[in-house]
Amino acid sequence: MRSRWWRSLALGLAAAAFFAGAVRAQGMPLGERIKLCGACHGDGGNSRMPNIPSLAGQPEFFLVNQLFLFREGVRKVEAMTPLVRDLKDPDLVALAKHFAALEAKPSEEPIEPALVKRGETLAGPMRCASCHLPELTGQQQMPRLAKQRVDYLIHSMKEFRDDTRSGADTLMSNVVSGVSDADLAALAHYAASR
Ligand code: HEC
Ligand code: HEC
Question: What is residue 30's predicted lDDT score, i.e. its pLDDT?
Answer without folding.
Answer: 87
